[in-house]
Amino acid sequence: MKATTLSENISKAIITASRFVSNKSQLPILSNILLKAEKNKIIINATNLETSISINIGAKVEEDGEIAIPSKIISDLFNNIPSGQILFESEKEKLSIKSSTFESVILGTNTSDFPSVAQLINNVMFRVLSSDMEDIVKKTLFSVSSDETRPILTGVLIVIEKNLLEFVATDGFRLSRKVLSLPKSNIKDETKLIVPRNTFAEVLRLCPNTEFIDISYDNESNQIIFAIGDYILSSRIIQGDFPDYKKVIPTGSTVTVEVDKDDLLRAVKLASIFARDAAGVIKLQIKDGKLNILAESSKSGSQNSTIDAKIEGEDDFVIAYNYRFLDEWLNCIEGSIVNLNFTNPSTPGLFSDPKDPDYIHIIMPVKLNS
Amino acid sequence: MDNFHTIGLVFTASALKQSATLSKLNMDNIDLQKLWNEVLSSLKVSISPANFSTWFAETFIYEIKKIKQRYYVDIGCKSNFAKNTIETRYLGLVYESLSKALNNAECDIVFSVRQNPILLQNNSIAPLFQPIEEKKERNLLQIFQKAGIRPYFSFDNFAVSSSNQMAWAAAEAVSKNPGSAYNPLFIWGGVGVGKTHLMNAVGHYLLSNNPDVQVLACTGEQFTNDIVEGIRNKTTQSFRNKYRKLNTLLIDDIQFIAGKDAVQEEFFHTFNALVASGSQIILTSDKPPSDISKLEERLRSRFEAGLIVDIAPPDFELRCAIVQIKSKERGIEIPSDIVHLIAGNLESPRKIEGFLTRLISEINIKNTNVSKEMVENLLQKGGETNGQTQRSPDEIIDIVCKHFSLSKRAILGSVRSRSIARPRQILMYLLRTNLHLPLEEIGRLVGNRDHTTVMHAVEKITTLASSDVYIRESISGIKSKL
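Above: the input entities. Below: the structure tokens describing the complete assembly.
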């Protein structure tokens, strides 16, 4: 191959692609990324067999060709390369990189063993604004489980019904659900897909590159493909039955609390200081029209912060939560006011943001012994 | 690049399906996992470890079918990458070893992207998804309450022995097949033998299996009250709606309606309506239908058309089981010798229940463990007198003499041969437990003996009652005459 492109374009692509390379792989070819020159672009492919990426970069191509290059070396190189024109030239299993002030030869490998990676998207099922996608991922991803013994919960469930998209994530202690309605879609039957956590994390990182994201999936190859501008990201779909999340969503409540988000976040952070060595447990106490956040630790001490809140329903109610769950939820809220709905100290509470009625969050309380 | 390779020797799936329906064989006799492991181990030899673990990890045989003389094998691969790589690079090897493993049969291999179902099995339920169960249970409790079913009377805690086996089997059959097995089921027996428990257990079982079933458990007295109220408030229609739309009607102590003409009339119609709609009826009574006086003839004959079973008072083994079940429910562990002691000295399950309540309060107050001495002590104090006319000591002496065919002189005399000493000890035991006489008084009555002799006798019989069948039977024989 022989092609010229700008280093500022290709550096970003190579560094992104290198994130898709598994450093644990036993197969040497999988620690490489593939560079390919054809027509008037350079294509960069990388995969860890779970997810893969293919990136197109405009280039002046004089000679087609492809080569696999160790990801570590090339990404480290492009982390520091000066901007300007760069010439890629491969000969047999060597790749030379030349700029006006820099020249390097990298030992690569033949591409015949490199797995084939999805490079284009066929039959787009639906299109999502990347700002919407960013919002969805931010509001759901933190609830995904990292416990590999329950593979089903390590992904975000997407339920597609006509033009309604539902994103659900849970780790068994909390659950996030965000609904999005689409102006149009090509979906007729209700479809459920579970997309791995890491895939969504990458989608989030790539969102700023484009205005729209096109999505398609294929049950036969068990793959979902995201087209994010010049990036084609494909991922496996997790198979299995997602737990029946609809049953968990509380329908009524006996106590509703409306509180300023920043006040609550600050109180949770204050309480966390003492909760840290008490298994993260903080207590929310509703008494005399105020919300008290309490935490105590036998090692370090205790604290109590009081917040003004609009409370409806039962007075004198105590419920305990892990502060991390509240903290993570509060961090993804845009509005200045949040709603907390409780029924019982041992049943899940419903948390919502009046600014975003399509988003709900559910957290399982910690059982109090008393 | 990402299209799916179709391979020469693979049929198209739709063509396969058509022929498969004609000659699909049950392949359960081939252990798929074993077969695939065999194939994998032979592949391992020819493929480098890195390639093997990358591509063949989590592969499995999803399906295998025999169509005419050829096998059709569907192999699940973890990802599209693995599928494509195996198809393009290792198909030959897979084919060779698979066909060898299938006794050189020809086979068609297809690959599909599937997750190995074994890896998906994780039965632990996440906490968030657990409360649903709890909620269900709470709902079930409410349902039980509405149906008048006592939630702690179920088949699980019903002990069965020869005395109630028949009734239990009938109840079980009814619960499996309500409305058709035995309709009505008529259970009769003395107090505290478990009639209500058994009847409740049927309702419990039906409701736990399907909370939507309409079950109502009430007593004959409640039924009567409902009718009276209906007549008084002119709401007999709502009464009929309540009773005639049930799937299962359980009436306790049906003998109460005997002699009440309007009630019997209404019950007769309710009964007919329910039986006609295939609903199950279970009745309990303290007597068999033939012995219930003032029961209308048409009701009697209808009761007799079903199955009539009786429950006899529990035998020793059953009482032991009851002691164990009840003590477990109350969260205490009673060693088996003490269980025998209790079961040997108390005849009715209700007494056992009362005794255990007393025992537990004793344990809690004194903050000790269950000990033999404590149980013996409590047993000797005897239960509350249950309203029966108390016999005088002399009468008891007479009854004991009569029972053992001994003369009063012999039993009160000084002969110490066992054949006389045992009845004497039993006499002292009965005087102590039934009449609560002071030890000295008993000693004086039984031939001017020392109070320590009486103490010894009572202790001896209390212990023997748990181990000696003869003693046990003698005591219950005498008690029945008291």
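Note for the figure: The radius of gyration of chain B is 36 Å.
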